[in-house]
Amino acid sequence: MRGSSGTLVEIATQALLANPTASLAEVATAAGVSRTTLHRLYPTRRALLVAVATEAVDRVEHAYTNAGLAAPGEEAEAALRRLLTALIPLGPQLEFIHRERGLDEEHALHARFDALDDLVVDLVKRGQRARVLRSDLAAWWIVSSLNGAVYGAWESIELGRLAPRDAPGMVLSTLLDGIRTGPADS
Questions:
Q1: Residue 6 — φ and ψ, nearest 5°?
Q2: Element (H, E) at 170
Q3: H or E element, residue 174
């Protein structure tokens, strides 16, 4: 079901992020549909939460698949740039997955989402072996930093501080180059 400002699930995502305790009636109002219509599609609040999370994980998996993370280590930077470009616009979905405590028992959904980090860890390790990424940092830490930076970039875009097209380069530059000044900056 698609409305003028997005699918019902996209609107539900926004409504639930704005108010994590929103009722089905409040979500229906935000989506511009009747409570009966929403209830017919999602009989319980939990069913709606699972639908929102499932779509979020589907979209995130799609981004990871399209980023070409199986690239050789020499191409790690380009693959990370593709991933960042695809992930940053998915900030609301990523936030929902991380924030919604009502999904803690959805183990299969969490396993799908957690498996995605393994793809990036493997890419980072290949990049480290190819000596294009720092090998003195644990790959899991680099991926954790990447995830945090993606969220920070999305939040900065939402606040109007960062242009969407600039975000992937800024995140990648910060991760690859750090924040220490180099010889040219002195």
A1: 130, 180
A2: helix 167-177
A3: helix 167-177
